[in-house]
Amino acid sequence: MRGQFHAEAAQHGPRGGLRRLLGPDYRLGYLFVVPAAVLVLALVAYPFGYAIYLSMTRKYVGVPPVWVGLENYVKLTFDGFFQRAVANSFIFTFGSVAVKTALGMAMALVLTSNIRFRSFFTGVLLIPWVAPTVVTALNFLWIFDYSLGVLNYLLVRVLHILPRGVGWLSEPGTAMASVIAVNIWRGFPFFGISFLAGLRAIPGELYEAAAVDGAGALQRFRHVTLPGLKNILIIVVLLSTIWTFNDFQIVYILTKGGPGGATQVIPVFT
Known about the structure:
Blueprint: H1 2-12, H2 14-22, H3 27-55, E1 57-60, E2 63-67, H4 71-77, H5 80-112, H6 118-125, H7 127-130, H8 133-143, H9 150-158, H10 172-201, H11 204-212, H12 217-228, H13 230-245, H14 249-254, H15 266-269
Antiparallel strand pairs: 1-2
């Protein structure tokens, strides 16, 4: 009886569930998983572990590495250029993500309203997202140019807002804001489309019930829209934070970390 009980328990366990699902070919599941596991170990785990090992050594070309432990990390922690790169990375990341979240939400709310040519505007607003990052950065490199840039031409000669042009990418006071603006332009459609999909999944009856209860537009947004978009908001903000923190192309093409380290971020620093 005890042996029969253990046999039945094994059939109802995790392995037994796999057997019932795949039948007599349940071992094929392991056969399919092994190549992917080996690939992950070979391309991700091993290089990551080897990089950690190298970071704890003093290595020169043609010379065997010398183990130094955490010495490199201690030096890096007190390095002024690294500290500035870390601070700039957080400013660049959180400044960009915050504005992209607000613009993406506004874009989604407008596209769910009863406006004409919604499909057309949706496609147009996707252009910054689908365009290659290098192309976008090169276009803004021309737009921000001090002598021939469109932005200075409009502000000085057309609108007469500024008495003279601004070195948007060559002055420390404006370089970081300019780089953030390009990242916002590149990424806000991703927020907008994601929020738009989430808004269309919220039942209209919730808005009708809130309106019957006397809730205004702001209250409906706070108590219906935001709770309905909570999961999407968390995922989109998390992904965008990771992508923005690791953004190399925009900063490198526009400023290469300058002027004077004003836009030096960790991906460019390393």
